[in-house]
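Each lists chain and fold; for instance:
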Amino acid sequence: MISGSIGMLASASLNSTKLGMYEPIHGSAPDIAGKGIANPLATILSVAMMLRYSLDEPQAADAIETAVAEVLKTVRTPDIYTEGTKKVTTTEMGDAVCALI
C-alpha cells in the first residue's frame, strides 16, 4: 500500500477473542511535537478498527471512516497536502472529522 504518509496507517494487533491493541503505525515524532503538524488520521482510524473488530460497533466505525473520507476531499495536514485543499493543523483535522460524525 502506498498511503502517502505514515500518519495514515492505522493498525490492530488482535488475539483469538477479538481483543487487541489499536494504534497508528508510527513513532512519537518528538521532532514535530507541539508544532500542530502531525496527522491524527491514523489514530482516528485505529479507533474505527477498534469499534469494528473488538466492540462490534460497525455502524460507528463506518461513521468515522466516512467522515475521514469526506474530510480528505477538502482539508489536509502538511504531510498529505495537495493543491486545491486547505492545509490544517492537527487539531483542525481532528475537529473536521468530529464535525462530520
Observations:
- Residues 58-71 form the longest helix (14 residues).
- Residues 36-101 form one domain.
- The radius of gyration is 14 Å.
- The beta strands are 10-14, 20-24, 75-76, 86-87.
